[in-house]
Each structure stands twice: as C-alpha cells, then as structure tokens.
Design goal:
The complex is a heterodimer of chains A (112) and B (109). Chain A is an all-beta fold. Chain A has no helices and eleven strands. Chain A starts with a strand and ends with a strand. Chain B has strands at 4-7, 10-14, 19-25, 31-37, 43-48, 52-56, 59-64, 69-74, 83-90, 98-99, 103-108. The chains are: A mainly beta (112), B mainly beta (109). The A-B interface holds A 31, 33, 35, 40-45, 48, 50, 56, 58-59, 88, 90, 92, 97-103, 105-106, 108 and B 4, 30-31, 33, 35, 41-43, 45, 48, 86, 88, 90, 95-102.
Chain lengths: 112, 109
C-alpha cells in the first residue's frame, strides 16, 4: 500500500515553462488536495477535489490548474511557471473532507 | 477566515525534557490535526483530535473545543522529535484545512 505518491521529488524550471506535478493515491479516497509550503509559513491550499470530476479553488489558486478524471489521480499543472511559484508542493488525500488527511512526501520546485 | 496561532514559535530542549505546544484558533472547528514535519520535509500525522484527549506513546494531545485551543505534549523528548509541528483546522462544512505557521522544535543531545 503506497499511500500518496508524488512525482517528481525535485524539479527545476525556467520562467515560462509548463509542467505537471503528479499525485496518485491507492486508498480509494474521495478527497484530494494540493498545498504549497513557503519558508516560515504553514501550508496553503491551492486546489482541492471532493471526488472524480469535481474540483474547486483553495486559498492561492492563481497560476495553477487541476483536473480529477479518476479517483486515484489529481495532477497539478503550472501553465507558465513564475519565480513566485518556487515552493514545496504537497498533495494530500482523505476518505472525505471531514476525515484526517494523509500527505505525500512533497515536490520541491525551483523556477529560475 | 479562521485564524490559527501556534506558540511558542521556536523551542529548544535538552534530550529527556518535557514540552507543551499550543494551538489557538479563532472559530469553532470540526477537524483538528497535529502534524510533525521531520528534517527531510515529510509530514507525519500525529493526531486527529477535534475534541478530547488522545495518547500515542510519549505524545499526547488535548483539544478543548469550547475554549478554542489544543495542546500537544511531548514527554521525555528525543533528538528524533526535532522538526516543525503544525496544527491545522477545518470549520463547519468548509473543505479547507487551515494551517498554523508551525513550531520549530530542536532537541539537543
């Protein structure tokens, strides 16, 4: 049972490039979410999904897109990377929005 | 939105000492979690505790929902307890988990 798996673990991009951060869970959880963590701050919610086909914006959604075509996968897309998006990104899942969330190991993203 | 304040922001302990970490929140919550972020950046679930008291080995947590605070107790601290401790809460039907800024704990041998 792998839990929540994020790929890649590290990535360096140039300003303006696009990329997709992958998140997969094998626990059949309905609720999935993406957070970013910046130095000296707690995690901030980017986007979340309460089930396949349903997504919604969190606290800091600008510059990011998500989709949820299957229960297992919740990719996060950066369409045109900016240096302000340099951060550590965490994906999390839970059976539903009221249950404790389980986090992946994070993706460390640097944008030059 | 709800405000989550954690204190103290930094804590240095000698191995073997006990400590109490505090989380205050500004509104009623139906979900409260404590996490430990280890030096490798991994977020580990410690407790899911919207109310009451729970214990897991040397760690225990108490949430007094009516007074809007939660406490995390670490007894006989070890160097492996070092890292950042986060409190995170949810209110009502809101699906957003709001994090505090964390408490950085350093346990010295």
């Amino acid at each position: 049972n792998a839990g929540v798996t994020q790929t890649p673990k590290f990535q360096v991009l140039k300003t303006g490039q696009s990329m997709t951060l992958q998140c997969a869970q094998d626990m059949n959880h309905e609720y999935m979410s993406w957070y970013r963590q910046d130095p000296g701050m707690g995690l901030r919610l980017i986007h979340y999904s309460v089930g396949a086909g349903i997504t919604d914006q969190g606290e800091v959604p600008n510059g990011y897109n998500v989709s949820r075509s299957t229960t297992e996968d919740f990719p996060l897309r950066l369409l045109s990377a900016a240096p302000s998006q340099t951060s550590v990104y965490f994906c999390a899942s839970s059976p539903n929005s009221g249950q404790p969330q389980h986090f992946g190991d994070g993706t460390r993203l640097s944008i030059l | 939105g709800i405000q989550v304040e954690q204190s103290p922001p930094d804590l240095i302990l000698q191995e073997g000492a006990n400590s109490t970490l505090r989380c205050n929140f500004s509104d009623s919550v139906n979900n409260l979690q404590w996490f430990h972020q280890n030096p490798w950046g991994q977020l580990i679930n410690l407790f899911y505790i919207p109310s009451g008291t729970k214990q897991n080995g040397r760690l225990s947590a108490t949430t007094v929902a009516t007074e809007r605070y939660s406490l995390l107790y670490i007894s006989s601290s070890q160097t492996t307890d070092s890292g950042v401790y986060f409190c995170a809460v949810k209110t009502g039907a809101n699906s957003k988990l709001t994090f505090g800024k964390g408490i950085t704990l350093s346990v010295r041998p």
